[in-house]
Amino acid sequence: MDQQMIAAYGQTAPTARMQAHGNKICRVAMQQGYDLFAKQGSMIAYTGFITFNPWRDSRGQRARGAITGEKVELMQCTGQGDLYLADYGADVVMLQLNGEALSVNGANILAFDAQLTKSIESIPGLAAKFSGNGMFNIKLEGTGWVAITTQGTPVVLNPGERETYVDPDALVAWSSGLRVKTKSSMRAMNLIGRGSGEAMQVAFTGSGYVVVQPSEDSTDRFHIRG
Amino acid sequence: MVEFRKGQKAKLSDLTPGTDLYVGLRLDAPGLTFDISCFGLDANDRLSDDRYFVFFNQPKSPEESIQLLGAQAGDQESFRVTLDRVPPQIGKLAFTATIDGNGQMSQVGSGYIRIAVGGQEVLRYAFTGAEFSTERAIMIADIYRKEPAVWRVAAVGQGFDGGLQALLENFGGEALEDEPAAPPQQQAPSFAPPPAAPQPPAPSFQQPPAPQFQQQPPAPNFGPPPGAPQQDQFQPIAVQGAQQGMGMQPPPGQFQQPGMPPPQGMPMGMPPQGQMAPPVPQQGMPMGMPPQQGMPPQGMPGQFPGQPGMPPQQGMPPQGMPMGQPGAPMGADQTYQYGLTQFAEVQGGQRWTQQNTKMVKALVSRSGAKVIARSGSMVAYQGKVEFKRTTQGSAQGQSRLQAWGTNRLTGQTMELMRCEGDGEVFFAEDAGYLHVVELGGQRLCVNAQNLLAWDDGLQLEPRRIEGQGIPGGGLFVQTVSGNGTCIVKTLGTPMVLPVNPGAPTFADSNAIVAWTDGMQVSTSTAVRVRRTAYPGHSGETVSLQFRGMQGHFIVVQPYEV
């Protein structure tokens, strides 16, 4: 068979814990002792010996998930080899935390190193209104790698320049330390955001960054799977 | 255009009233690669602030008065220099080139630096390698000032023997340690000195204030000069280049629309807001071209993690792992680097700034720059912006019951909002590709679903194209006209088809995005395409048939709604 065509898409030697293969596949170099949490079902291929176990956290975790009507099903990946992750053609952005914290929309998380401390946090004022809408966040802190997914190429904004307001559906992640609150720009006849009643944005102030995706479809793509 | 000789100097205002300069450089030498950079030096010709050393790893100065744009329009490297915004402590911009690797300047066959304003080349200084011997660096030209607002140009053409370290010490900079860790297509930074002696001033008179952004003509706007052979020439839709290199773009000539009237190539004919400048800095436009979009894989400012002097928002820490190259070179597809710096907001003072292929930023100001957008297309905003629901009629500032009526007739509503205030609004929708279209006085028919946002002040006229089988019973089309910009969304990389006078052109009504006004449009079921789309589908679609004169074109997206 003529392999000219596909040769360009072959494996490459790993140089880092997480690497992009194209911009929609995340490839993780797995090592014993360095476990990884990944979104369930995001594994598309692996080489070597890797085992996947559904991850059940403490009761608090699940309780929270139940309250928000949403939970990210994570799996714990253990072993040695190369692991390839993707999430329905979404763009994958990899970054490395170096002691700071990152808050990621639950629907946009793809994978993260197990040694990161994680906690569920909700946006004050938003959780109640967007219950069941995926509007809860995983806060990751520590030193390690994180892979997040975005619908389309994201843009990173700095609220330090000016106060920044983001459509909740387009919000992907932000650096912890920003002041977060919700803002309703709803007036009698105002309709912004998608559909009705969504005249609400998440407001950020302070120095840091906010990742915004060019799509307002933040519904968990898991749902399509069913 | 003025041809400069070595050593020649002139006042910039004698050459052009513009202060928004495009500076392009090229050095031809077989087997050699060059690092071309710009030094912002203080009054003592010292690099007192490292952030004004603009090179590939630091593609812009803090306030973005100097931006590295990358290779374009035949130039190996290009800069955008906005003189009005250059801070007062910077007295000289020295453009230099150094050899990357082994070699000497005498190997250079030919080279030039050119300055263009508003797409017009105003200055060119050409040189050959014969003027040099074993030097490894060359100081090509300076833009400098004596008085605060009087800028001058000097063709320097000085070779320099020393290496980078020597140069840097020469003007007090410090060697950056991470310089070589750049992506492969980039070169190591170059450090070449400013000329030893300050240039004698040219005769001076006060430069006329050259208006820039958001003002009426006099100063031509920014844009690389013509003669970019690879640029597509069609107007007014900027549909090309939106892809991340999927190789789907038609060959250049295909967009050529010789019969298209004006806006092509007249910088003055641009909309009053003057949003001529390329929103994405690494690409330029030949004059009159609509801004190109795209996040080409190379040369994107802010794409390289750990680059010095980046504002803190890109906040991710320096990479601990070898930050080397992203995994696989995926053919033509773009591969993201690590971290978030590559996605940093594209700053720009223009009215519309493309952030990436899928997001566009609009500036709104109290002074009247307002934007009308489809409700729900805003993904984020910064500053104090208010969104007011509006209807199409009132969006045009006139009571147009007719517009309402048409809306009702079509059964389709176009919920609009008016964005006003003071700030920046980011538009995107469904991760579709966004195209910044400069109308330049022309009329364009856009499928209402594909029209995302536009300048307040453009005229919109709803139309309905009826035909059996069209979803919704008809095609809801907006005819946009006026002087300004509108944002057109396509799902996937669009294709532009010229309409030949001889034979009609057909397009699927589900895939049509836009077409030039003035064509005869009719529905046609003569073209039947069997489809096995889904059960219940009639198996045939309605085509639109376009007949028109030379110069008309249609835009089709690879996605049928």
Summarize the structure.
The complex is a heterodimer of chains A (226) and B (561). Chain A is mainly beta and 226 residues long.
How many H/I helices of chain B? 4
CATH superfamily of chain A: Mitochondrial biogenesis AIM24
Number of helices of chain A: 3
- Provide the β-strand percentage band of chain B: 25-35%
Count of individual beta strands of chain A: 15
**Measured distance between first and last alpha carbons of chain B:** 50 Å
- Secondary structure class of chain A reads mainly beta
Estimated radius of gyration of chain A: 18 Å
Low-pLDDT residue intervals, each spanning 5 or more residues of chain B: 175-221, 223-333, 394-411
CATH superfamily of the largest domain in chain B: Mitochondrial biogenesis AIM24
What would you note in describing this structure?
- The complex is a heterodimer of chains A (226) and B (561).
- With 226 residues, chain A is mainly beta.
- Chain A contains three helices and 15 strands.
- Chain A has one domain: Mitochondrial biogenesis AIM24 (Double-stranded beta-helix).
- The C terminus of chain A is likely disordered.
- In chain B, strands 13, 14, 15, 16, 17, 18, 20 and 23 form an eight-stranded antiparallel sheet that branches. A six-stranded mixed sheet of chain B has the order 1-10-9-3-7-6, with no helix packed on it. A six-stranded antiparallel sheet of chain B has the order 2-12-11-8-4-5.
- Chain B folds into two domains: 169 residues, Lipoxygenase-1, CATH 2.60.60.30; 261 residues, 4-Layer Sandwich (Double-stranded beta-helix).
- The two termini of chain B are 50 Å apart.
- In chain B, 4% of the residues lie in helices and 33% in strands.
